Amino acid sequence: MTRVINDKSIVMVTGASAGLGRAVCVSLGKMGANVIALARDVDALAKTQDLVEQAGGRCLCVPFDLLEFDAYGKLFLRLKDQIPHLDGLIHCAGSLQYCTPMQYVKTDDFRAMLDIHLTAPNMLTQSMLPLIRRAEEATVVFTSCEMLDNDLPNWHAYGLAKRALGYAAAMWHAEHADKAYRFVTIDPGRMRTALFRRAFMGMDPMEVPGPEQAAEGFLRMLAATADAVNGKSLKLEDALGL
Asked: Keywords assigned by UniProt (predicted)?
């Protein structure tokens, strides 16, 4: 780990109202970082803010619907004079109503999965790129899952989008290979979240770890050297070894 996460660090986290996103925010707070927390649920965001500040960090809550793509430009305009730069952008937002074979998935549900898991993280990265460029170094983290390299049935557009994120990180890196910001994808593994409970209804959630361990992997990627992460797709165990 060569970069230091401290009270000068500014990191945006999506899906910050619960689960993995909240765990990443709190872990950043423990390092004294300044967190920009994005999510739709205002009350849940306020809880995240309390936890981050109790941990020792600072938190700016931004109620925001990632599916409102026309609002991305307004979000940038709101932030560009409030913060000097972004040291990190961590895409944790996710949603899944059900698993089903491709032959049964409804068109609207298919599109919604592509939008929240593929379109949103890439378009938000695009919109925040001017703030990322202002940083001495910065890291963009895309959150994938075990479909990153496993062919599993019944995950329809969720699985397609999550697998595509590995290519997205590689593409962003190839287009900015000589820059001081890097792009990486992580498979954090199964963890005890609301999404896990919906996807694996037959499993006891206590059989998998909470998101706190995975959050440590995200911090290690933020602090890693460019050669260790740029354009790569990593498992959680790889990230924890950085």
From this structure: Oxidoreductase
